[in-house]
Amino acid sequence: MRISVNDLTSLTRKAIVSFGYTSDEAEIILKVLMFAQLRGNNQGVVKLIGSGIPMREGNGEPVTVKETTVSALIDGNGTHAMLVMDAMTDRAILKAKEHGMAIVGNFNTTESTGALGYYVDKIASEGLIGFAYASAPFMTTAPYGSTEPLFCTNPFAVGIPTSNDPFLLDMSTSEIAYYGLIEAKTAGVNVSEGCGFDASGAPTTDPAQIMSGAIKAFGGHKGSALALMVQLLAGSLVEADSFDNESDNAGNLVMAIDPSILTNKERFENENSEIIERIRSAKRIGSKNEIFVAGERGYRFKDGVLESGEIDIQDNLLSKLKEVAGE
Amino acid sequence: MRISVNDLTSLTRKAIVSFGYTSDEAEIILKVLMFAQLRGNNQGVVKLIGSGIPMREGNGEPVTVKETTVSALIDGNGTHAMLVMDAMTDRAILKAKEHGMAIVGNFNTTESTGALGYYVDKIASEGLIGFAYASAPFMTTAPYGSTEPLFCTNPFAVGIPTSNDPFLLDMSTSEIAYYGLIEAKTAGVNVSEGCGFDASGAPTTDPAQIMSGAIKAFGGHKGSALALMVQLLAGSLVEADSFDNESDNAGNLVMAIDPSILTNKERFENENSEIIERIRSAKRIGSKNEIFVAGERGYRFKDGVLESGEIDIQDNLLSKLKEVAGE
């Protein structure tokens, strides 16, 4: 059904607060979830109907365990990844503005950061180039040549400022995101062919069977190498665990680079817009009526407030969300 | 036929020197070409039989046009990309060792850097994490949804130190590298299906037709977004040109990060080796007998000297190489 962005925002805020978050914390989680929801990304409000948002029992405050002028490593102390990642993003922006570039990572956060695009969009909106990587010890995805789940879906994102909206690349290195499986299962539909294997290693399109088997790494050996890169950058480099379903120690990494340490910022942003415009106007294949350019879908926050309008949402998802929100 | 690494090295050195490079310059180009050749990467000695190595008429010395403690932008002044990129790599290593991280880029180099893996291997061999990106205004590759060549093959590479050989990811964002087309054409064979289009936009496996048409971006919309990312980072950010076959102004970008600004270096390297070992031992699909792990193929330089041994080389390629070398 259709729902106004305002109503969905209120409902989502209510659902988040019901888990015990302060109103400041709830606003951060709300922005991350709505960013994804309004872009048709499967890291949106579906997270509220599973185990993705509730707070971990007995979590502490995030603590900085190592710091230099250009870097920081944070022990998340069981805090939700969205809250830690949002603070890390702000810190990377500050450090990059002062020193030209910065890298900030964490271990020991719970659950996922949601759409990494949110954080690199925040960086790019400050005129900086942003990179983000996330990993978790939860094994869902098989490397190329194997059917054994070892990697998490290991997403990464890149945000680059233009004279209009930032260029945003936000992708899992798995053929489908884990929440894509949850969405398909909730909707009672199969996923596309070639997304994964069942527990015996046979190809299947049933999302539940892929959950107990393995998602395929995207893009053959190249995509699988990217998944391994993320495992090293957002796992090992930030002291998070790898390959251990029993562990809660997930890791994230964010980088920010000020383009003005290399070139003129305005020239850079204008040329980026021209390049994107040229790609968008490329000769189309047959009946395809648009060329995909990362980051152009979706609503945006203006001064921290969502644009208004209406969006589609699954009936099933909406009624479960109302339950969580206590409506 | 089989040739000893020593003989191929001598022949390659001779061919490079025949273009007028000094012996110091020739050693750099030699290492870059042999790194690729000995890994079965198509950025190897095949470059000597085309227009990839000859010097540009009237080129000047590279000049630093902007510099901070963590960055530098270089005007290549028409110097060959391999020479400029090698010097930029050394500079990024020095700056990262001193300041934790660094980014160095150039515009206005000629031809391609060759295998980007060479440069990130050099960075990772110093215990740092390396990223490299290369672009050129020469249009060969169509974005997802189009058959119009706009991107160059836009490769990027990542090198991460381990307690053994570095993890190396080195990939073009096109379905096949341009030198892969040259190799196939030289060998008189077709390429795999799904690599590209002819000039009318119809799918073809003929390498010559793809050269006058377009290579496909790899991996659907995700790969195409990665190609665009490289265009912005190694094109616009470093003041190189985009989308102009008449322009010689190609760009490259290299980054180095010292992992010890976030974590203990030894722990990081050991854990990276363990992660890679776990991936390598993953349950295999059917008859596949190895799991691809980036960077494990090929010979390595020990103290600047190539390991010895023998490798296969196409007869056709070898005889053309001998011609260039004047043998």
Automatic annotation (TrEMBL), chains A, B:
SUPFAM superfamilies linked: L-sulfolactate dehydrogenase-like
Molecular function via GO: oxidoreductase activity
Top-rank taxon: Bacteria
Keywords: Oxidoreductase
Any one Pfam family match given in the protein's UniProt record, by short name: Ldh_2
InterPro entries reported in the protein's UniProt record: Mal/L-sulf/L-lact_DH-like_ah, Mal/L-sulf/L-lact_DH-like_NADP, Mal/L-sulfo/L-lacto_DH-like_sf, Malate/L-lactate_DH-like
Keyword flag Isomerase: no
Family: Belongs to the LDH2/MDH2 oxidoreductase family.
Designated name of the protein: Lactate dehydrogenase
Organism: candidate division WWE3 bacterium CG22_combo_CG10-13_8_21_14_all_39_12
